[in-house]
Amino acid sequence: MKSRYNYGKRAAALALAMIVTAGGITGCGKTVTGSVDEDGRYHLKAMAYDHFGNPMKGENGEKIVKMVEDYTNVSLDVMWTPKDGYEDKLNLVLAGGGADMPQIIATETKSPAIINAARAGALWDLEPFLKDYPHLKNSREVVNDNIRINGRLYGIYRGRALGRNGLSYRKDWADKLGLSAPQTIDDVYQMLRAFTYDDPDGNGENDTYGLALTKATVPLDIMSTWFGAPNGWGERDGKLVPAHQTEEYLEALQWFRKLCEEGLIKKDFPTRDVATKADDLKTQKAGMMVDALDDGRRVMDYFQNQNISGPEMDFVGAIQADSQSDKKTMATLGCQGFFVITKAAKTEEDVRRCLDFLDKMNDEAMMTVANYGLKDVHYTVGEDGRVTRSHDATLNQEYQAMNQLVSYTEYAPNTDPFVTLNETPFYEKQQETIEENEAYAVSNPAAGILGDSEEYIKNGVALDKIIEDARIQYIVGQIDETQLKSQWDLWSKSGGEKVIEQVNASYEGLKK
Fold first, then answer.
1. What pLDDT score was predicted for residue 414?
2. CA–CA separation, 429 vs 419, rounded Å?
3. Which residue stretches of 167-323 are H helix?
4. Distance between CA 371 and CA 408 in Å, rounded?
5. Do domains 11-162+334-415 and 165-330 have the same CATH topology?
6. How many CB atoms lie within 10 A of CB 398?
7. pTM of the model
């Protein structure tokens, strides 16, 4: 069984500490978190992701924060936390409570730490409140179901497009080598081989390769769905089974192993940091990446911003196993995690203050400043009303972090109806591909019920590690197929079969 969750070690045992300590919380500075000042402004503390460094920097950043505070009627205190250390910090916050406990916490995963906090009564069930908020009440039920814990809705999802995943490649290299956009798995293989051995950059050196990978697991999961493997879990003969118990999953692993043996991917990919995933494309060493299509677009943005002429990227969304098969790609959950409201929000009135903030962040004024920054600083508006945004990464640090406080309940990022972007044909192609992908995106039917398994909550970290370690070891040639399958047997004996039993009990309950 494969899950993309990154779990902490302490929160499950200590989740109740949050409830005990939340009553005496104070925020950073002189104000008390959750109090209201004489102007009626609510002191709101949140924990959110910092993906770009230097969040809300400089005078412009401060100006934007004040704009948000004035519009939402809060005094905002945000714990901007880098993604690499986010889960560890989240687990410490959940376990420790006290002055560090925010009322609103963003998370990308329905991890055991979050599940245990919900079960311990440390999070608010938000469903009864949503009808009172103009944006939040329009949340999509299918996405809400993906983030439920024991049937209850403890989160406001952070909306994303379902068809966001796909393949990005160097079109100029492909054109030079006479290759069309890949449609099948064999087309992808032929392109990767040509990018590795046919001198696509024309310098006469053996210095390029096919597919850039890091220790991130999502690209392997996306490509596995091309073969027909499930997205985490799939239905076989009316029963849910984990992906690794399907023939298609093994077929995908055999293909990855072949890519590694032939040098089309780098054998050290399991040790490469996730933050470096685009580096070999930017330095023109690699010709393809498989991940969110946004990442391929950012590579093209990089070439343009650095005035590097020649490189041209292109997209393909879903891929066919062969010419007779349907296209497939891995669906997202329709969200990138969710916001929880902790019991640091001590009363229903506190909860409503928090929800009012999250709802207002979906208003036109807030989405515009969070997505694009300040007019005539970070973007301009042409005579035709179209917005041209800055692609200066340093300048954009003044506003970009604020979009991590937007739930995008109704509209995925950069698809809101309030702004018409003046963008490159490449950007338009990305958006079109994402939209087309939705018809081919393979969802995970266990996404909303895996957290119902007591065995998974207790033992999921160790079980996931067995499957993931075996997958990587097999791909890079450290173990053979017999040893791979012995690890799958170990998974079953170590609690995996009990997880399957419990997941299917919940699945049968959904059918009734």
1. 62
2. 18
3. 171-176, 185-197, 218-226, 247-261, 279-282, 293-305
4. 11
5. yes
6. 25
7. 0.78
Domain residue limits, the chain: 11-162+334-415, 165-330, 450-511
Four-CA torsion 128, 129, 131, 135, nearest 10 degrees: -140
Local mean pLDDT, 10-residue blocks, the chain (512 residues) = 36 39 36 77 95 91 97 96 86 79 92 86 96 95 88 93 94 98 98 98 96 94 98 95 98 98 97 91 98 92 91 96 97 92 96 98 95 94 91 89 94 74 86 93 91 88 94 98 98 98 91 70
DSSP 423-474: --HHHHHHHHHHHHHGGGEEP-TTTTTGGG-HHHHHHHHHHHHHHHHHHHHH
Q: Which residues contact 276 (CB under 8 A, 6 or more apart)?
A: 214
Are 347 and 42 within 8 A, CB to CB? no
Dump the DSSP string for 329-383.
Answer: EE---SEEEEEEEBTTS-SHHHHHHHHHHHHHTTSHHHHHHHHH-SBTTTEEE-T
Asked whether the CA dihedral 421, 424, 427, 433 is positive or negative, the reply is positive
Structure tokens at 369: 């400043």
d(CA 81, CA 433): 31
Q: Which residues fall within 8 angstroms of residue 396, CB to CB, at 6 or more apart?
A: 52, 373, 378, 390
Which architecture characterizes domain 11-162+334-415 according to CATH?
3-Layer(aba) Sandwich (3.40)
Residue with tokens 């093209």: 300
* Fold (topology level) of 165-330: D-Maltodextrin-Binding Protein; domain 2 (3.40.190)
Q: How far apart are CA 373 and CA 141, in angstroms?
A: 31
* Residues 227, 188: Cα–Cα separation, whole Å: 12
CA distance 288 to 209: 9
- Helical packing angle, 293-305 and 425-437, nearest 10°: 180
Tokens (6 digits) for 165: 């995943």
Helix (H) or strand (E) holding 157: strand 155-159
| 142/502 Cα distance (integer angstroms) | 22
SS3 content of the chain, % helix, strand, coil (to 5): 45, 15, 35
Q: Which two tokens stand for residue 452?
A: 């119902």
Q: What pairs with residue 379 in β-bridges?
A: 375, 389
The candidate with the shortest Cα–Cα distance to 350, out of 90, 21, 129, 161, is 129
Dihedral sign (CA 243, 244, 250, 254): positive
What type of residue sits at position 311? P
Rounded Cα gap, residues 358 and 373, in angstroms: 18
Interior angle at CA 92, CA 91 and CA 94, nearest 5: 65
Would you state the pLDDT for residue 83? 82
Q: 354, 330, 356, 359: which is closest to 343 by C-alpha?
A: 354
Instruction: Determine the 3-state secondary structure of 89 from DSSP.
Output: helix
